[in-house]
Amino acid sequence: MELQNTITRENLRILMNSFYTKTIANEDIRHFFIHELGEDIANEDWVEHIETLVDFWLASLLGEGPYEGNFVGMHIKIPHISRASFATWMELFSSSTDEVYVAELAGEFKKQGMLLSEKFINELNL
To answer: How far is CA 97 from CA 37, 46, 68, in A?
Structure first.
């Protein structure tokens, strides 16, 4: 796939599918996602989750989209999450952004992802 130089709903779906494919294959953090959404990212729960995250990223990076959720609040309830979980999340997310976007845009996603990770870590007192 050619690296994208703009953020669109379509390439955000590609990013989220790439990221979650890696996530559910990762032994360290897969259980967080499989427990809530199942193993098949084509199932209805996963599709809904991915669409919510597409909306989240459109709102976060472009100020667009209908996202009105509580991103931090949704994740605080996850049991047994740790700093290491967020480090793994960030590693997988970063590699996925590098596969979809040109370096400048991938850097924006990584910057926002790191800020979110730090916010979760602080909120959870990890």
So the answer is: 22, 19, 23
